[in-house]
Amino acid sequence: MSAKAPSSRVAAASQQRTSLIPETLEELKSTGGPSLQVQTPAQQRREERRRRQRSLDNIGVPSFSRFLQDAGVDKLERGVAEILQLNIGLYCNQACSHCHVESSPLRTEMMDRATAERCLQLAQEAQPHGLAMLDITGGAPELNSEFRYLVEQAAAMGLQTIDRCNLTVLLEPGQEDLPDFLARHQVRVVASLPCYSTTNVDEQRGSGVFQRSITGLQLLNAVGYGQPGSGLHLDLVYNPNGAFLAPPQDALQDAYKAELESAYGIVFNSLLAMNNMPIKRFADYLLRKGELQEYMQTLVQGFNVESTSSLMCRNTISVGWNGRIYDCDFNQQLDLGLRHLQGSQDAHQGSTVFDIGSLMELQQAPIAVDSHCFGCTAGSGSGCQGATS
Ligand code: SF4
Ligand code: SF4
């Protein structure tokens, strides 16, 4: 297939600009199970704990902490907070089968202005101590009312910003200027594209998502993203379409680059190959297919001690839409709150951005690890570079 000229691609993209949300809702209706229902946080916590415990009990593995110790790592130590990751809401125009945050158009949770302002204040105060990046995720973060405010303020403060973009959001009505907005603020785009084949992407992310994602990438390329010398960084994220580990990143990146450029004229900077985390909707998916235990076993057997030096929890502080603070986006989805307050014994009563005086005071807080952490340490150890949308 030959690549179209950039201008005709952008014109074609404009013609496709209809919302994906009606199709997503229709698919939810036809395939909806318990995992697609909105639960209260307490229900989610109970269900998640039961599921994780069951998978571990059944395969009889030692704890993650024990694995670390046996591998010569006493415990995970937190370093300087270099990245503040904000999950600003669970609303999304998609409802992917592997979504570890269970986003969909039915979710209504969103960060408010007061919480966004407090996060920016904490980030600004932490800049002289090493904080350099604001990493914004969701849901589809661009559909949250605070997204553009956060990007503009972060740029004014001199912070690098990441947008964890699902690509199809670029075609949502009202987002016509999104590529220009991102480029103007030098936002680094990290975008999900779990395969370069239509079938695999649509199976995991919903019908029609692949073609819309391709168009979204072309729109980003058209404003300079991924183009040599533009300074506009575009990374893609691969995650497996099933219960297996991500393959080595470099060979996969070469294949993505060759295929996307020859078929669609798309260029990008790097490919990040991530494992799927055995939590939330992906855990449900595995449970339904009878593959949860096998997948946990694969993760445990794939434990790679070298990965422990670059885990997200070592240099990132994660904040949820409601201001709660976590070690990482995965702990956030399990509601394993970061405990910095003296004497706090309950992991589910962690602190919020309004409880702390600075991000620096979190440095001594222990990192909460559990069975899902095997998802970060399996294989090439690339599974923990952050949430993707
Ligand atoms: S899930 Fe990954 S990033 Fe989060 S605490 Fe566990 S090892 Fe660290
Ligand atoms: S994986 Fe990303 S795009 Fe898919 S439903 Fe979840 S947040 Fe939305």
UniProtKB/TrEMBL annotation:
Residues 27-56 are annotated as: Disordered. Residues 245-387 form the Arsenosugar biosynthesis radical SAM protein ArsS-like C-terminal domain. Residues 87-225 form the Radical SAM core domain. GO terms for molecular function: catalytic activity; iron-sulfur cluster binding; metal ion binding. SUPFAM superfamilies: Radical SAM enzymes (SSF102114). Pfam families: DUF3641, Radical_SAM. Residues 32-42 have a biased composition (Polar residues). Keywords: Iron, Iron-sulfur, Metal-binding, S-adenosyl-L-methionine. InterPro entries: Aldolase_TIM, ArsS-like_C, rSAM, rSAM_ArsS-like, rSAM_sf. This is Fe-S oxidoreductase. It comes from Symbiochloris irregularis.
